[in-house]
Amino acid sequence: LAAMFADGTAPGADVESLWRSARTKSCQTEQISTVETAAQSHTSRDATVQTDQSKDALQDFQQEVQVDYTSLLSFLQRVEDAVIKELNKNWKSRAFDGFEVNWTDQNEAVLCLHTLSYPEAQDQNLQVTSVSWNATGSVVACSYGRLDGGDWSTEKSYVCTWNLDRRGLNPQHPDLVVDVPSSVMCLAFHPSQPALIAGGLFSGELVVWDTSRTEDPVMWRTGMTDDTHTDPVYQVNWLPDAKHRNNSRLLSVSTDGKILVWREERDGRLALAEGFAMVAQQIPRSTWLKKFTGGEAAVGVTSLSFSHFDHRVFIVGVEGGYSLKCSTAAETLALHPTRSSVPLRAPAELAFSPHGGPVYSVSCSPFHRNLFLSCGTDGQVHLHSMLQTQPLISLQLSKKYLFCVRWSPVRPLVFAAASGEGDVYLFDFEKSSQKPAVSIKQAAGECPVYCLEFNIKQTQLLAAGDATGTVKVWQLSSDFTEQGPRELNRLEQLASEITD
Amino acid sequence: MAEVEETLKRIQAHRGVVATIVVNAEGIPIRTTLDNSTTVQYAGLLHQLTMKARSTVRDIDPQNDLTFLRIRSKKHEIMVAPDKEYLLIVIQNPCE
């Protein structure tokens, strides 16, 4: 018998481990620990700070610094004797008498460096009415117009500038020519911005040009409003603006008797900020003025000069022939007939002894607070002290008119005057009190020189403009450019020769 | 403190003296008879010049040292008395 064998499968047998156990665990990573670190700084420190130049007085340093008085006293006691000994020796010393040092090359003579002109203006017989140097001293500008134009003139005029430090300077070809519809009578460059120049027109308007703009140089103008002058503007000055240090105001002077101060408005307009009017009844009278037959003389103002020492004091020269000391702090209102948007005040405080004709130019000394010069059609220059009405010195420099007088910016005893005979006179009180030290012939014939200006930055240069339409730039000799050791004392002596 | 002022007054009252300034070792003015801005200018410039003058003297001869500095200009004479801690500057207008 065969046994019945069959195929079959049997499940495997599981044998559980006795010693190993299983447990479920999570297999995700644990939380990563993070720490916040700041990415933006929350502390700061000033690296640089930009400040405007402030004119505020420095803080009193004596209070800030700790002073050790005992050591200071012992120091002073140690050095006092030595210092007193040196002071005494120095006072008695004759060692340096007559000892002078020359730091610069000596120029012996006065030379004409440049003869500048604009031929188109000369063809129209225009004259140079005013010259001005810019703030850096390298650009000279002149205005063309007519000073003998008569009552009304609709002649076009030009303002031309030349940069003398540029290579390739062409004296007949100005760097910039601005066409002006009316005759420009006076010019003034801005004292610190080298490209701005202001001009006063025959029509009584004021215009400010920006010479750095090529397309339309006109920046501001007064236009013809009720406030504008009704007569030609003969002098224009820039005034530092007390409130907004970066801005300046413009001052204009005209034969209509008004002295107006303008400020710049945003729309290119010049608006009247304050003003003064000279009215005959309000001129302070003194005994000699009553004897003066021109009692109700015209008070057309032809020139003005601010004192370099007190910014509220200014001197004006008038058509009546006398100069007046005025103050911007005056409060009395002027009895001026015309109305204006800002009340006009009467500034005159003192009237000085007159010239024999209208005064054309006044100039306050940059070295002495009381001295000023005036010149006029009588050909005389008067040296005045503001403390008395009679002039200290009267000089007859010319038989014709004197158009302009200017003190030298470096030599306290020197001034220059422009005459109708075509001469520029350089006067030096150190050399002579009667006649000019140097007489420069600017133009041949009797062609008047109308204007002159010293260059404040390059003190050996003097620019003068004449009726032939030429501007000549003169280089002065060294004795006109360096202050001598005793000059200020001599000037002080001159100023104190006051007669009673 | 009063003696300091008296000593300075005596120096200032001397013939021809225009101004007196005392400067400390850092170049900061501590006493002056001039206005602030001019004083600061004088103090800064003369402090530097005195240091330069002193180093010039000592470079030439290390055993030597600066005792006094006088600068004569067209307009006046500036005298500087130097010290470790202070500087006395006196400006005199000499006679003539």
TrEMBL record, chain A:
WD repeat coordinates: 226-262
Keywords: Cytoplasm, Repeat, WD repeat
InterPro entries noted in UniProt: Dynein_IC, WD40/YVTN_repeat-like_dom_sf, WD40_repeat_dom_sf, WD40_rpt
UniProt KW Amino-acid biosynthesis keyword: no
Organism: Aquila chrysaetos chrysaetos
One Gene Ontology term from the biological process aspect of the record: intraciliary retrograde transport
Pfam families (alphabetical): WD40
GO terms of molecular function: dynein heavy chain binding; dynein light chain binding
Lineage, broadest ranks: Eukaryota, Metazoa, Chordata, Craniata, Vertebrata
Cited Gene3D superfamilies: YVTN repeat-like/Quinoprotein amine dehydrogenase (2.130.10.10)
Predominant location category: cytoplasm
Protein name, as recorded: Dynein 2 intermediate chain 2
Protein's cellular compartments: Cytoplasm
Family annotation (PROSITE patterns): WD_REPEATS_2
Gene Ontology CC entries for this record: axoneme; centriole; centrosome; ciliary basal body; cytoplasmic dynein complex; cytosol; filopodium; nuclear body
Automatic annotation (TrEMBL), chain B:
Key word Transport present: yes
MF GO annotations: dynein intermediate chain binding
Domain of life: Eukaryota
Cellular localization per UniProt: Cytoplasm, Cytoskeleton
GO BP term, pick one: microtubule-based movement
InterPro entries linked to this entry: DYNLRB1/2, Roadblock/LAMTOR2_dom
Family named by the database record: Belongs to the GAMAD family.
Keyword Transport tagged: yes
Roadblock/LAMTOR2 domain mapped to chain residues: 4-92
Annotated function: Acts as one of several non-catalytic accessory components of the cytoplasmic dynein 1 complex that are thought to be involved in linking dynein to cargos and to adapter proteins that regulate dynein function. Cytoplasmic dynein 1 acts as a motor for the intracellular retrograde motility of vesicles and organelles along microtubules.
Keyword list, A-Z: Cytoplasm, Cytoskeleton, Dynein, Microtubule, Motor protein, Transport
Any one GO CC term of the record: microtubule
Pfam families: Robl_LC7
SUPFAM superfamilies on file: Roadblock/LC7 domain
Predominant subcellular localization, coarse grouping: cytoplasm
Name assigned to this protein: Dynein light chain roadblock
